[in-house]
Specification:
The chain is an alpha/beta fold and 385 residues long. It has two domains: 250 residues, Type I PLP-dependent aspartate aminotransferase-like (Major domain) (Aspartate Aminotransferase, domain 2, 3-Layer(aba) Sandwich), CATH 3.40.640; 130 residues, Aspartate Aminotransferase, domain 1 (Alpha-Beta Complex). The longest helix is centred in the last third of the chain and has 21 residues. Helices cover 39% and strands 15% of the residues. Helix 7 links the parallel strand 4 and strand 5.
Length: 385
């Protein structure tokens, strides 16, 4: 299916809303019925129509159809945040006594679910170094039912061989879920590689303007119905119409923004690699990246996020550098129009900082839509400080 058609035309039945170019926001909580039988049918199958916007809504459905097509999936659900889009599919597919496997050091809220919430219901998690399929094989238990992946992750960009993990899991009836936020469906197609569920935080590249939250899970119709009829409706974590409309707006420019960000990131990477005050640099499409060949094999692009260290990796020098930046803002997240930086030490108590621990020294940079020279000049003056 053509990308331009998906983004600009798919699911937009303009004759149904006065031939408006932009779809309206169906800002309604409720839907009425003319017959008791019609209401009865809506109660019986809430995923088959519109009953209450906690479930489905016309504006949200336009977004659902576009996002599932981008993932090459049969269907998708859109949530109010990326964290909700991880929580719901995991909870829908595990039960008491199950075991799941996760890549080590996953997204913080995923790890809190694995460590704090699931054990309360008798579900245990084993963390593995996902760079080797042998580690997944070694972690398998008779009651393993779920594998959670992040490829690449959002700090050190470790990858998993998605086709190999899928080949390991499917014959055993193990459900696989990947956080595909780094790549988006434009730069990586996990479902085509055999992964069951593809998740992304729409807050980032899909929205693109740092003004809304959202999360997406794509998969088969059956998998989406399973999630919809349990966690989605019960928790009430679906996205609201206005936020869905903002994500539709963000989708219009997604390919163009990713292309621009990719070019800028390449220039920033080249600058940092040659700078005498930079220690190590991590970026999946850098030829010195340990998994560069796998990145080239299963990703068609990489943009925005990169991580580096300073040769003088003390908490004082990291702090001076970050606070000296004039145009690159210090904040969490990524994927918006604005460039951002976040030092790992901001999440570490000063007394616990270990200058010998490279992970404590990490500085993550997101290159936004500013011109590359503008960002490089800012980095250069901050490195001089």
């Amino acid at each position: 299916m053509d990308l331009s058609y998906i983004i600009n035309e798919m699911a937009e039945d303009r004759e149904h809303y006065f031939n408006a170019v932009a779809p309206p926001i169906m800002q309604t909580s409720n839907f009425s019925f003319k017959t008791v039988d019609g209401l009865r049918q809506a109660f019986a199958d809430e995923m088959g129509g519109y009953l209450y916007s906690r479930g489905l809504n016309p504006t949200v459905d336009i977004l659902r159809r576009k996002l599932s097509a981008l993932d090459g999936a049969e269907d998708c659900l859109v949530f109010g945040s990326g964290a909700a889009a991880i929580f719901a599919p995991v909870l829908a597919h595990v039960k008491s006594g199950d075991h799941l496997i996760s890549v080590r050091q996953p997204y913080s809220w995923a790890q809190r679910m694995f460590d704090n919430l699931l054990p309360r219901f008798g579900v245990q998690t084993t963390y593995v170094d996902g760079r080797s399929i042998a580690n997944f094989e070694a972690a398998l238990q008779p009651n393993t039912t779920f594998i959670y992946l992040e490829s690449p992750n959002s700090w050190t960009y470790e990858l998993q061989d998605l086709a190999a993990v899928a080949a390991l899991a499917r014959p055993r009836g193990i459900t696989t879920l990947i956080d595909n936020s780094y790549c988006t469906p434009l730069y990586q197609q996990p479902i085509a590689l055999g992964i069951d569920l593809a998740m992304q935080t729409a807050t980032k590249y899909i929205g693109g303007h740092s003004d809304t939250l959202g999360g997406v899970v794509s998969g088969t119709h059956a998998a989406m119905r399973r999630i919809f009829e349990s966690e989605y409706l019960t928790v009430g974590s679906g996205i609201q119409p206005f936020n869905a409309w903002l994500l539709l707006r963000g989708l219009r420019t997604l390919p163009m923004r990713l292309e621009k960000i990719s070019r800028t990131t390449e220039a920033v990477v080249a600058f940092l690699k040659q700078h005498p005050r930079i220690g190590r640099l991590l970026f999946p499409f850098d030829k010195d990246f340990p998994q560069y060949e796998l990145a080239q094999k299963q990703m068609t692009g990489a943009c925005g996020l990169l991580t580096f260290t300073l040769k003088d990796g003390t908490v004082e020098s990291i702090t001076k550098f970050c606070e000296a930046l004039k145009h690159i803002q210090m904040a969490v997240s990524w994927g918006g129009y604005e460039s951002l930086v976040i030092p790992r030490c901001a999440g570490i108590a000063p007394a616990d900082f270990d200058a010998a621990n490279e992970g404590h020294q990490y500085i993550r940079l997101y290159a936004g839509l500013e011109e590359a020279d503008y960002l490089i000049k800012d980095l250069e003056q901050a490195l001089a400080v």
